[in-house]
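Hello,

Our lab assistant flagged a job as stuck in the queue for most of the afternoon. It eventually completed. Since we weren't sure the result was trustworthy after the delay, we are filing this so someone can double-check. Below is the sequence as submitted and the structure that was eventually returned. Let us know if re-running is recommended.
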Amino acid sequence: MNLPNKLTVLRVILIPFFVASLLMYGGSVRMFRYVAAGIFIVASLTDMLDGKIARKYNLVTNFGKFMDPLADKLLVCSALICLVELRQLPAWMVIIIVSREFIISGFRLVAAERGIVIAASYWGKFKTTFQMIAVVLLIFDFSALEIVTLACTWIALALTLISLVDYIGKNHKILTEGER
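-- returned structure --
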C-alpha cells in the first residue's frame, strides 16, 4: 500500500463524511456546507496528487489503476446526487453525467478483458476538473457567483458529452472487434 494508493483510499473514506456534512440539516446550515466543501476540496486534491506521485516515482499499481477512477466517480457522483437532493441540480443533468460514467466504465471493462488499457483523455480530465469546480461552487451556493456557477455547471455537462463522444469514437472497435 504505497502513498498514491493510500491517498485513493483516503478519498473513498472521506465520501461519507462529505455527504453527511452536506446533507446535515437539509443543507441549510452554512457552516456544514463549508465543512462539506473543505472535505470535497481535500478529496479532489488527493485525486491530483495520487496520480502525479504514482507516475513521478513509478508507483503505478493495478490497485491504483482500478481504484483511482472508481474513487473519482464515487466522489463526484455522490456530490451530484446530494445536490439533486438539495434541489440545486436537476436530476436529468445528473442522470446524463452518471450514465456517461457507467458507459465509459463498461468500455474499460471490455477493453481490460482484451488486455487493452484505455487511458484518460484530455477531454475526460477537463470534464472532471469542471465537474469538481461546479460542485464546489454549488456547495458554497453564493448568490454573487450564480452566473459563474451556472456557466461551470453547463461547461461540465458539455464536457461530459464531448468526452463520451471522444471515448466512443476512439474506442468503438473494442465493442465491434470479433463480431460477424
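-- support follow-up --
The delay was a queue issue, not a problem with the job. The result is valid. The chain has one domain: 3-176. The helical segments are 3-23, 30-56, 62-85, 91-113, 122-140, 146-176.
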